[in-house]
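Hi there,

I know you've been waiting on this one. I reran it after we fixed the sequence typo, so this is the corrected version. Both the input and the resulting structure follow.
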Amino acid sequence: MSSNSIRFVFARWTGAIAFLWLLATPDAAAQNFWQRTNIPVVEVLSLAVNSSGHIFAGTTFSFNGGVFRSTDNGRTWALVLKVTENVTALAINLRGHIFAGTLDGIFRSTDNGENWKPINDGFRFSPHVQSLLINARDYIFAGIDNEIFRSTDNGETWNSTNLEVGDVLSLAVNPVTQDLFAGTGPLSEDDVVVFRSTDDGENWMPTGLKDFDVRALVINPTTQDIFAGRFDGVIRSMDNGISWTRLNLGSQDASVVSLVIPPGQERGGILAGTAGDGDGVFHSIDNGENWMPVNTGFNDEALLSIHSFAVNPVTRDIFAGTREGVFRGTPPIVQHTPPSLQEANREFSITANVVAETGAAAAALHYRRGGDKNFIAKPMARTGVSYQAAIPPDSVTSRGVEYFFITDLGGFKDRTPASGVFSIPIEVPAPGLVRGSAQPAGSEQTAYRLLSAPLDLDDKDPRMVLADDLGAYNIKKWRLYELLSNQQYIEFPNAAAMTPGKAFWLIVKNPGRTIDTGKGKSNQTSQAYAIPLHPQWNFVGNPFHFTVPIDNVSFKKSGKPAELRSYTGKWNDRVNERVTEMQPFEGYAVFNDSNAPDLLVINPHLTDTTGSRIALRASSSEKSRWSIRLLAQCQEARDTDNLAAIVASASNGWDEMDHPEPPTVGEYVSVYFPHSEWNKLSRNYCADFRPESSEGSVWLFAVKTNISDKVNLSFAGLESVPNEFEIWLADEAVNLTQNLREMNHCTVAGSELPKQLKLVVGKRDFIDEKLTNLQQIPTTYELSQNFPNPFNPATTIRYGLPQAERVTLKIYNLLGEEVALIMNDELQAAGYHVAIWDGRNKLGEVVGSGVYVYRFRAGSFTAMKKMALVK
């Protein structure tokens, strides 16, 4: 047992989550949850509570019935409205005006129930009110037998809405969208029984629920799930009424006539009241998946009909209107202050005091390591009102510790905190966390990696994090870069601190170097972690020492899922090798397409519902018609993630499938599709998706590199293109075309000035139209001036042949010495061709600056031209 001890006093009202139920102890199950109030009548049909906590109960007309009021949480009651019909519905607006619906009309009180006025102007006959509802616009809706009436003037006048159905038994409003829902009785077999209005009742649309009376409706304010109570239990819709699922209430005879979402349980808690031969009240804390009866304190007569529920917003007690009066349910009181930093691998105990008005309650601790999916439930040992449990050392790690409590009073289960978890940061001593694999070594671009620290480090200076593993900073041994908001790189020691969620480019020359972080603590997992983003590209990392699924990563402002790019010597293939999770220590690139700063939100809770995620439409083979991948290599540098594709749902302009070209670092080669006309933050794209065209399409792309060498281009996926389409490469700068179906590769001169080419795909007539000026056969032998000139590092030499010839091309210096042999008596077809000189001699050595001569021979034709290499 640890010396660390944490004390708790549980706070009233907490929520619940799916799948987590407390195993009730025998003495807990014996305690009463419900207590009968002192209302002087028997059968209570409707309940409402105002903002001051005053409770109003609508009763049957017998035994001096009407509307009763309690101003002391149900201890005493007074009859404030006596009527000769049952009070079937109650509603209170934001001004505190009370509306009572009876089988003989509607009454209104504007003075907290002291005086009442009948308000029935507009009804064709004495209305039989079945249900009442007030929306955010203060419109009042009344279910009157088989139609709905609406008042927009506080009940002074009423007008029928456009809905004629069976009896309107229940009404509900979505607090987020303000959509209205009406539960009805069917006029005939297989009739729709729930209707929706999106325009304040002007028009009503049928939902997907049919058959049987819907006597109760409630909408969860957090999830917006809809619950309908019928004679066969509870039916749930999670898609705004389009489809419905019957939930297993645990009793085949449970006719549900009342529903309520307990306060603090908006992430899954719901109470269902039954009638007739029902079994009283059922409680679910997992959105209706599982139910348990909560009836301790009721007598047998009360169990026969639980007509209504209401919640006191002041005391947060639950009130149930039953056949035997009004009962009040009061959960245990729970107060808690989370503990502070704990040391890794050491057990610590948690002590709790549980206070319940109606007797003892049970408590259980649910804990897990950060990033684990499942919690471990542990009953807390009881001494009087004190409960204790310990979290063992194997759960106290660099991942952090998460926990919550569930209390049980008479079958009513409650959760602390209401949603989410408490998170305890864990201190990790020196040397901190050690990366599981050695840093890739080398001096080429392929040795670069993005690095992040999955801890909140005590010393965030990159020098302190890396120098003990890699030695003193020396650009010949290791280099570190940070990307600034202006998309410029800054090198260590001017780089920023290694804060959680921030990634850096690192290259290490010597092999076998393993990196540790130094002392630090785990980041809080009780809430999502937010990483600041500047516009355009950012380098980010996982702030947690566990894997986080990509579905848990999104942008704060838009809520859209984030696409991450990873680098392992080349950028990942975003279609076939998508980043599906964030690994500790790794870094990723993410593009913020907003002109303003944003936040990248990482949700560490693997069991949470994070919302639907929009997968790349282009990754769906069913939607992709065909695609061509453009691959470039210059020495060790590669760029392989470029895609020209046809997708049915794409647009000719920008759409979400067109992804920006990722940033470069070190010695690079880059292929991209330039699109400045799209007026987006990125002007260059690695993917350009187009809609299908019956004739053909043209893609403009560019190639550049900072390596003094030629670039080898190749084109993959040509077999996916329909056979009736030809595939050509066009270089308009040198008047050159190439049939890629015959030869799918070529070479261009490397330069930091972009080399623009065109990929032309289409039917024969389309190809002829686009390439007419480029496919002519010269009438004489031609040797063009090299391009560019002067050049560095490589240049292109264009020549034309009126007929097939054997060609020789050599490079000389001004002394007449042969420097390089480009072609030696090679057979070439008639047409235009290019050759590349990469500024190297016959030994592969880079030559110096100066003037050189290239000599061309084709058959009996010879020609020479000068060119200048300038470094």
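Quick highlight: The helical segments are 26-29, 300-303, 462-470, 764-771.

Best,
R. S.
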